[in-house]
Amino acid sequence: MIFKTFEAKEIELKPKELLKALGQKLKNTDYKAKAAGIREKALAAAEKIRGLKDLDTKKLASDFWNGKPHEERRLGDLYIPGTGLYKHREWRGVKDTLYYFNMIWLYNYVHMVTDIMKYGNLPDFIKGTLRYRWMGQTYLTVMHWFDRGMEGMRGPALRASAWHYRGMTSETIRQFQAMFASDKKLHGGEANELWKKHIAHNETVSGCIFYPWRDVLDDVPLEMIPYFVTCHVNNHTVLNYIDAAQSIGLPADPCPMCQAEYGIFVLDDYPDYAPIMITSNEACDGSVATSVLQDWFLNRPLFAMPQPMRYDDPLVQKHCQKEIEACWKFVEEQMGVPFSWDQYVKYAESFNKLTIFEHEKWDVAANTPYYPVNGVAQALYRIYYSQDGDRPIWHEVDAHVKKIMETAIEKKINSFPKTRHRVIAWSCAPLYYSNWCTWAYNCWGLNCVINMDSLMFDQMLRTDTYEHALEDLAWFNEKAPMRAMAVGGHEHIFQLWQYMERFHCDMVVMYDQLQCKGMQGIHGMFEDEFRKRNIHAIWVPHALPDKRTVSRREIRQIINDYMTTVMHEEPLDPTLVDFEDGDSW
């Protein structure tokens, strides 16, 4: 062993010289330094052993089985730097992680494939994906949309929220498969039999209008998938449509929602799937321009059904009812299918069941801590199904959610135990960041109990007489998103105070759509009321679908600043306070 301290050439020395060299080596060795090094290594090893002994095995086991408690999750550490995309998904505990993998991730991927075959066929799907930009950009990013919306969720909230997403995903597939199957552009420019059995309409013309033909004709909203759904799933999708609208000389100051909707036509990125079109004004002049441009591009029979913004006058109600009847006559004449009162009754009464359950959900959300649906799932689902009208998938989803909600109430499960403030979100939301309320709860304990858009279309549809049915349907159509509480007059916009009291909210997130002339005109009145009523309100500027005006990161910073400087509160999860996600979906 002693010769290991020598190089090869030294071993060749004579014995006398070798002994002399050995003595010199031993003389030069710093035994104190070597001893110190050995001691340090021994202490480090002992520290590791001691650390293993000091580990709280019960805590480790609990974190593995149940997932880490809220303040220890560090959800921001899951993101790839510079994005909001995951390096890996969150460990939610054994039960919830397995549920997410099996009943959310795997279940929805399987059904995204089976729904393609259920509602159409694979060749049409492939052709549509290759033909339409909005389709290719969103279909494969859907599960990231799930991840964002349900980040940090556990137990009943995870399950009930996921079912809402499942319903929207299924109905989205049904709609685009219906469009692709009858699309002239995908079938050699020829109109097939399915083309002749479809009604195209504006996304804010409720599907309830077309109940008299539901068993014979299929009504599919033209912009719901290319515009509304896509910017929620992938916030980059609609930007080129906005730019296209402005490129032909249209002004940039109207609502970017309207710009995106007619930009789809400028770029010829819309399916040609129906012989007629029904439009509405969506409550602003910008959408009137959209209808004019749609009429120009489509070049086919089009019925415009504009709804008044100030609709409380009884004479205005009569006018709206006549417009609906004129629309029905237009459909009869153009499609050659007579109005069916029995079909209207059938679907209106079925839809009323959805409204009744919605009221039950609101009652639980308002009066108990056991409501198992997060803010983004509740708002998106409510807007989607109420605009779309009665469909089987909504009843399937409601049955699952009802069972989950009843269990949460029975077992007194608080799905949002870290709630510091009960928040109501008012006005039109940033469509490119609908999952901000999931972030707000995880980071600051802001529980968005209800959204303004969730409260629209709140109308039961009577079916005892034709006159009552027409009256209620007119009211229903006037309560479309944005039409009633955004620009429907200050008495409707100021219903905020009643809803704050009803849902026991102590804070308002006030969406400030920078290009909405209606809400901009009443900004000062809201400020006066907030001060007079001593209400904490966070103004969140945005540009509806256009993330370039105000980014998601800027929205988070506005909320961060308010919570630290005004509320003097500390974040529940500091890793979520600031991160960059501008390039992510």
Keywords:
2 domains; four-stranded parallel β-sheet; alpha/beta; 585 residues; globular; disordered N terminus
Question: Can you walk through the features of this model?
Answer:
The chain is an alpha/beta fold and 585 residues long. The chain has 2 domains: 2-56; 93-409 and 419-576, no CATH class. The protein contains 24 helices and 8 strands. A 4-stranded parallel β-sheet has the order 2-1-3-4, with helices on both faces. The radius of gyration is 30 Å and the shape is globular. The chain starts with 7 loop residues before the first helix and ends in a 20-residue tail after the last helix. Mean pLDDT is 88; it is low at 1-11.
Element layout with pairings:
Layout: H1 8-11, H2 15-28, H3 31-54, H4 57-66, H5 94-119, H6 122-131, H7 133-138, H8 142-149, H9 155-181, E1 198-201, E2 218-221, H10 224-233, H11 239-247, H12 256-266, E3 277-279, H13 285-298, E4 302-304, H14 314-335, H15 341-367, H16 375-388, H17 392-410, E5 421-426, H18 436-444, E6 446-451, H19 466-478, H20 490-493, H21 496-502, E7 507-513, H22 517-520, H23 523-533, E8 536-542, H24 552-565
Parallel strand pairs: 1-2, 1-3, 3-4, 5-6, 5-7, 7-8
Helix pairs in contact: 5-9, 6-9, 9-16, 9-17, 11-12, 12-13, 14-19, 15-17
